[in-house]
Amino acid sequence: MSALRKKFGDDYQVVTTSSSGSGFNQPPPEKKRKRQRFVDKNGRCNVQHGNLGGETSRYLSDLFTTLVDLKWRWNLFIFILTYTVAWLFMASMWWFIAYLRGDLNRAHNDKYTPCVANVYNFPSAFLFFIETEATIGYGYRYITDKCPEGIILFLFQSILGSIVDAFLIGCMFIKMSQPKKRAETLMFSEHAAISMRDGKLTLMFRVGNLRNSHMVSAQIRCKLLKSRQTPEGEFLPLDQLELDVGFSTGADQLFLVSPLTICHVIDTKSPFYDLSQRSMQTEQFEIVVILEGIVETTGIITHFSNEAGKHATPNVK
Predict the structure, then answer these.
(1) What pTM value is reported for the model?
(2) Quick one: which of 263, 309, 315 has its CA closest to 285?
(3) Do 206 and 299 reside in the same domain of the chain?
(4) Among 157, 196, 219, 252, which is most exposed with the fewest C-beta within 10 angstroms?
(5) E strands within the chain?
(6) Residue 261 pLDDT exceeds 70
(7) DSSP code at position 51
(8) What is the pLDDT of residue 80?
(9) Residue 116 DSSP class
(10) Which secondary-structure segment (H or E) carries 313?
(11) pLDDT tens digits, residue range 197-209?
């Protein structure tokens, strides 16, 4: 057996030959480990914050935004759980008042005036609460004027019900009106290309809108994410550089009625100016495309992100 050492760039690979054969028995190349992207193709950022301290209290201090940011299954679970607990609590309060006054044992006595008419047990107290809260008003169960504690509880129930309805229904409405699914009908090209256009070396990719409704005041921006080291020796793991896609000429303002080609001229001001073709293939970087605009059907200002770079950066923690 003899060993041959071949050099590929800065890496060395050992190749063995057999004395009985003329071919090389080269070991299969190792699969390149797929790096996790900073931004996925669907625009989701792979950022995990850790070792900050007090995260739970910070999230709870802005409870409304926290609920809106939760996934749909958790939103529905909290929605159902909150209403169920509130209903059972208020029904228990009505039953407790009837129990303390002795209405449960004398509810069938025509000469006795209970706090709430026709409340005999917990199910009937629960039905009275639902009829009151939902303003159904069947008329069979009703509160009387002989029960001041019941009147106070009725006022408390009305205020609490309004707060819970405003909070949860508002949260569900905001979540349903979020245009995240609108990004499914905004198409970005799978790859970015570099070629000559108008005599200039240009980085190009395409973007298109599948819906007939327009993106009003659409504006596109590009960010280059890569690590670099400053002259002072500081290492920046995710340095953000702006890629000019027509900011000075107004080309970044899009009239997105048909697919458009977005161009970035690689000139002396471009971060790619000092990169060769080989270094472009080996460098670890990402190009994040951000499309901002107003959804015509809802009038909501939104933005969509897409990762257009071939190479990726590791997860940030």
Answers:
(1) 0.61
(2) 309
(3) yes
(4) 196
(5) 2-8, 11-17, 24-25, 186-188, 193-197, 200-209, 215-229, 235-243, 253-254, 260-265, 285-295, 301-307
(6) yes
(7) S
(8) 93
(9) B
(10) none
(11) 888 899 899 988 8
The total of structural domains in the chain comes to 2
Tokens of 61: 């201090």
Cα separation, 155 vs 168, in Å, equals 20
Residue 118 Ramachandran class (φ > 0 left, ψ -120 to 50 alpha, else beta): left
Q: Are 209 and 168 in a shared domain?
A: no
pLDDT at 148 over 70: yes
Q: Tokens 């992100």 appear where?
A: 305
Q: Are residues 156 and 119 in the same domain?
A: yes
Which one, of 67, 65, 83, lies nearest residue 75 by Cα?
Answer: 67
Q: Could you tell me the two tokens for 122?
A: 């917990």
DSSP state of 278: H
122 is in which domain, residue-wise? 72-177
Look up the CATH number of the domain holding residue 248: 2.60.40.1400
Same domain, yes or no: 187 and 171? no
Structure tokens belonging to residue 295: 């959804």
User: Is the Cβ–Cβ distance between 284 and 297 less than 8 Å?
Assistant: no
Q: What percent of the chain has pLDDT over 90?
A: 11
- Report the amino acid identity of residue 281: Q
pLDDT (tens digit, 9 = 90+) per residue, 114-136? Answer: 888 888 889 989 999 988 888 88
List the CATH number of the domain containing 87: 1.10.287.70
Return d(Cα 207, Cα 227) in angstroms, integer: 27
Task: Lowest mean pLDDT of 21-30, 77-86, 259-268, name the range.
Answer: 21-30
- Strand residue runs (E) in 158-234: 186-188, 193-197, 200-209, 215-229
| pLDDT tens digits, one per residue of 106-116 | 767 777 888 88
Per-position b or e across 199-211, b if 16+ CB within 10 A of its CB: eeebbebebebee
Name the domain boundary from 124, 155, 177: 177
